[in-house]
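Forum > Structural Biology > Help requests

Title: Can anyone predict the 3D structure of Molybdopterin synthase catalytic subunit?

Hi all, first post here. I have the sequence for Molybdopterin synthase catalytic subunit but no way to get a structure on my laptop. I'd be grateful if someone could post the structure tokens.
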Amino acid sequence: MRIVVQEAGFDLGDEARSFAAGATGAGAVVTFTGVVRGDGKMAAMEIEHYPGMTEKAITAIVAQAMERWALSDALVIHRHGRLVVGEPIMMVATAARHRVEAFAAAEFLMDYLKSRAPFWKKEIGADGAAWVAARDEDEAALTRW
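Reply #1:
Sure, ran it for you. Structure tokens for Molybdopterin synthase catalytic subunit below:
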């Protein structure tokens, strides 16, 4: 299990290859990358967090996924700071004996990271900046777990 919270960008291909190479015994590796959405109005996003608190929360979420789906490995990379449209925000990777477990665990991680990891996001555009509020549909997504 590897959890990284960083300001710097990361190479998706390098991270995926490295993760897959270390996933010995796994029959499935699933990766997901979230990017800053471009809606025509937003130019950038600023993501804030509390060091230590954030890593602890993500570690607990990943540990729960690893136990629930018997993952052989998991990776979460999440960025903070100023990111522009199209830049990767985060990456989740899971490795398991079978694809059903790897996909389910990745979806669980994405849903819980979106709603429970302590990050605060501000969208910045030509009209100014606004903090992103919690969305009902993100909370509702947790009910399936």
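The chain has a mean pLDDT of 95. Residues 99-116 form the longest helix (18 residues).
Shout if anything looks off.
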